[in-house]
Amino acid sequence: MSFSGKIKEELAACDKEARHCNLAELSAILHMCGEFSQDRYGVCTVKFRSENFRVARKCFTLMKKTFNIGNDISIRRNMAKGSTSYLLFWKGEELLAVRNAIVHAVCCKRAYIRGAFIAAGSMSDPGKAYHFEIVCSDMGQAEYLKDMINSFGVDAKTVPRKKTYVVYLKEGSQIVDILNVMEAHIALMEMENVRILKEMRNSVNRKVNCETANINKTVCAAVRQVEDIEYIRDTIGLEQLPDGLRDVALTRLANPEAALKELGNLMSEPVGKSGVNHRLRKLSELAEKLREQ
Question: Where in the sequence is the domain holding 93, given as residue range(s)?
Fold first, then answer.
């Protein structure tokens, strides 16, 4: 099962007692997957269609708990595509409460976002990428959902996609927050475990890259130093150098791979790292002057 499927299964199993929360969740599902209209007598009707059995079952359960009204159910199978569609139909003035539901309370906002994700949401495998989205049929619906999500301190954005509008999140920490808002706690823990492993892996890679860069920098510097010292030796001779410079030059030639601190300890008169660096810089300046001449 995909990660999205796991989240939806967990959310579909979330059972709330408060009627106002059930109404908010039902409103989200029907606005995402349903179509409101009126019959010839002006009575409110709603048609619901989904290829996801969990969504259809959740919608049926919420309608039964919230209004206890009957419905017509039909199942259609497309043998060519190998898919199954679940169609539900309700009629009654009670449905106006669903169509015109206004969500204010925090608990109802959680329920609405949960219903929207169950009906039209998806999420990528966090082991590969961080992407959370809910597909809306029109811009007004997308903006309404985005504002509701952002009321929980995240930064959801919208983007048009063909004939729909997508509300999405791409930051791992914000996706964790919205999973918590929807009360998908099992999925949240699974994602947090993945994030921790990825962060540890990235941290190790950064340290390895940093150490590799430092090693390359040290090797390149040592190669330049040896080249400068050999040039001085072949032009004026190392015996012309002051004792301190001659000491560090001979030690570097004998130990081309040694770090500065180690080089200082190997000299006949040991000096610190800064002292070694200062003398090698003097040798480099001398070599440049000789090359110019």
Answer: 3-183
> Token pair for residue 254?
């004998």
Tell which of 152, 183, 214 closes a domain.
183
How far, in Å, CA of 72 to CA of 50, rounded? Answer: 14
Over residues 110-121, the pLDDT tens digits come to: 999 999 999 999
| 8 Å CB contact between 252 and 225 | yes
Q: What is the pLDDT of residues 238-252, one digit of tens each?
A: 888 888 888 888 888
Query: How buried is residue 217: exposed, middle or buried, by Cβ count under 10 Å (0-12/13-18/19+)?
Result: exposed
* Confidence band, pLDDT 50/70/90 cuts, at residue 79: low
Instruction: Specify if 189 maps to a domain.
Output: no
Angle between helices 185-235 and 3-12 (to 10 degrees): 150
**Rounded CA separation 113/17 (Å):** 17
For the entire predicted model, the pTM comes to: 0.70
